[in-house]
Amino acid sequence: MNQEEYQQIVNDHADALYRFSLKNIKVIEEAKEIVQNSFEKLWVHRQEVHPEKAKSYLFTLAYRNCIDIIRKQKKESELDMIHKEPQQHYNPHLIGVKALIDKALTKLNEIQRSAILLRDYEGYSYAEIGEILSLNESQVKVQIFRGRKKLQSILGNVEDII
User: How far apart, in Å, are the Cα atoms of 42 and each of 18, 26, 94?
Assistant: First the structure.
């Protein structure tokens, strides 16, 4: 991969990579850092990565970085929960539907959340998602189905929200 191809890949995929990272991490600075690190690793390995495979390579790197950060946040939040009072329940009438969906997405496991975000928010095919998440197409479909079912049970009936 030469510098022009690399620049075209940056132009084509930077925004989607950032959105994916931000949806998973919820911290702007960390999402930007994930994107930066992904493109940096792509540049370092530009001789081994074909331009056609750059998209899945970038999203795989971002996904793995997100998982690392999520695990770190989980450990930190478990320590914080020891010293914290019980959380109050959210009233769906006081917060927006988008915030409610975002909150529900955080209750999914990493694979389900990432698969749903890649499919429903970013529009990737099952094959592309499988390549990014290191799953086969059947596993991707199962994870998306289970994730959507769990979201449905978390969110309840749409008419109750609206």
Answer: 15, 24, 43
Q: What is the DSSP string of 111-139?
A: HHHHHHIIIIIT---HHHHHHHHT--HHH
Looking from the CA of 33 toward its CB, the CA atoms found within 13 Å total: 10
Q: How many CB atoms lie within 10 A of CB 161?
A: 12
Query: Does the model's pTM come out above 0.70?
Result: no
The backbone region for 27, taken as left when phi is positive above 0, alpha when psi lies in -120 to 50, beta otherwise, is beta
pLDDT tens per residue, range 76-133 = 776 666 555 445 454 555 557 777 788 888 889 989 999 998 998 888 899 999 998 9
* Cα angle value 115/120/123 (rounded, 5°): 95
Give CA–CA dist 91/131, Å, rounded. 38
Pull the structure tokens for residue 32.
């930007």
Enter the tokens of residue 54. 């750059």
Question: For 25, phi and psi rounded to 5 degrees?
Answer: -95, -35
The number of helix segments (H) and strand segments (E) in the chain equals 8, 0
